[in-house]
Design goal:
The protein has 13 helices and 14 strands. It is α/β, with parallel strands linked by helices. Helix 5 runs parallel beside helix 6. It starts with 10 loop residues before the first helix and ends in a 5-residue tail after the last helix. The protein binds pyridoxal-5'-phosphate. Pyridoxal-5'-phosphate (PLP) binds next to helix 3 and helix 4.
């Protein structure tokens, strides 16, 4: 099976993890802050707070921004469930903004229209979570202008987009957001096994994120309510979680980060190969904004009506031929958890139409030319209405 995504592990990665295994600290040692510093330097942010997943990073990001019962979080329906679940975990209400039919990202027009209505009805969102789908950045300057006007906070879910540029600015620098989250799951751009990080330029938010990832405990007397009993003293000042990243994971991540630019260059080569090879097939290849630089986490194609084959037929033919195609994403609002909250089919028609036709082709740095050709030839046969 040719997978849709796969990690690349080198001897340098293995050596880096082995060195931590032989050291004094498997967790809460020096490797996590070193990795945080390296990611912060890479994307020119002030602070990085590493955690055990992007899901955890989204959760503590919402907590740190004070999201709670009675508040609203808005995100894109075309995302992994974690982008929305973070709102529910804080006891907030969740709503969605339909996507743009070209970028498959949250539509700025739809967001603008929805904000106007929400303002009249007195239910403006406290937090908006734009998702840089497939690695293609959202229009962050426009979303940030709306944030300023309507007074909401922004968490960028950049799980697909470490290494991308929005205009010429690195995603993660938080020029247009309060917090940016990256994922280090093995299918993502770089990996720590499981892992994630929250980037911010706000020292107070960074401090709060650090505290929330470790139970809400502080050892800083300035943040305590009582004078310390002694040198052992700590206080739990709010309810947090144990979301810490291990030093083993951080060592892998730091080693992977050394190769990120080569990974993204390779992803661009593969995508350009698909762009050319698929140009005459009855499929729509993904658009990339020439003003941005995508991290190209995914290569989602749409099966056009002219194919004379359904998405399901094409998907099954690809899988039968040993190609690990996938679908990103089932719109979040049609999962049972969200339908129980009152969401219905057809509420976000652009995301649902996209979902009906989408297939993600294999895209990862280690795919070789012959495997990519197999994908292309198989797709050609699978979409040929004469076969
Ligand atoms: C992968 C992903 C997440 C969750 O990442 P984990 O590190 O697996 O928790 C969240 N949002 C999006 C858009 C993702 O693709």
């Amino acid at each position: 099976m040719i997978p849709y995504g796969r990690q690349d592990i080198t001897q340098a990665d293995i050596d880096a993890v082995e060195a931590v295994l032989r050291s004094d600290f498997l967790t809460q040692g020096p490797t996590v802050p070193r990795f945080e510093q390296a990611v912060a330097e890479y994307c020119s942010a002030q602070y990085g707070v590493a955690v055990n997943s992007a899901t955890s990073a989204l959760h503590i990001a919402c907590q740190a921004l004070g999201l709670g019962p009675g508040d609203w979080l808005w995100t894109s329906p075309n995302t992994f469930v974690a982008s929305a679940n973070c709102g529910l975990h804080c006891g907030a209400n969740v709503d969605f903004v339909d996507i743009d039919s070209r970028s498959y990202n949250m539509s700025v027009e739809q967001l603008t229209a929805k904000l106007e209505i929400a303002e009249r009805e007195g239910r403006l969102p406290k937090v908006v979570v734009p998702v840089h789908f497939a690695g293609q950045p959202c229009d962050m300057p426009a979303i940030a202008r709306l944030a300023k006007h309507y007074g909401f906070k922004i968490i960028e879910d950049a799980s697909h987009a470490i290494g991308a540029n929005c205009r010429s600015e690195p995603v993660g620098r938080c020029d247009h957001s309060d917090i940016t989250v990256f994922s280090f799951h093995p299918v993502k751009i770089i990996t720590t096994g499981e892992g994630g990080i929250a980037m911010t330029n706000d020292a107070i938010l960074a401090e709060r994120l650090r505290r929330l990832r470790t139970h809400g405990i502080t050892r800083d007397p300035n943040h305590m309510t009582e004078p310390p009993d002694g040198p052992w003293y700590y206080e739990q000042v709010e309810l947090g979680e144990n979301y810490r990243m291990t030093d083993l994971a951080a060592a892998l991540g730091a080693s992977q980060l050394d190769r990120i630019d080569a990974y993204i260059a390779r992803r661009h080569e593969i995508a350009e190969g698909y762009d050319d090879a698929l140009a005459d097939l009855p499929v729509t290849t993904p658009w990339r904004d020439p003003k941005d630089h995508s991290a190209l986490h995914l290569y989602p194609i749409l099966i056009n009506d002219s194919a004379g084959k359904s998405r399901r037929e094409v998907f099954e033919a690809m899988r039968a031929a040993g190609i690990g195609v996938n679908v990103h994403y089932i719109p979040v609002h049609i999962h049972p958890v969200y339908r129980k909250l009152g969401f219905t089919h057809d509420q976000f028609p652009v995301a649902e139409d996209y979902y009906q036709r989408a297939i993600s082709l294999p895209l990862f740095p280690g795919i070789d030319a012959s495997s990519q050709n197999t994908v292309i030839e198989t797709l050609g046969r699978a979409t040929d209405s004469k076969l």
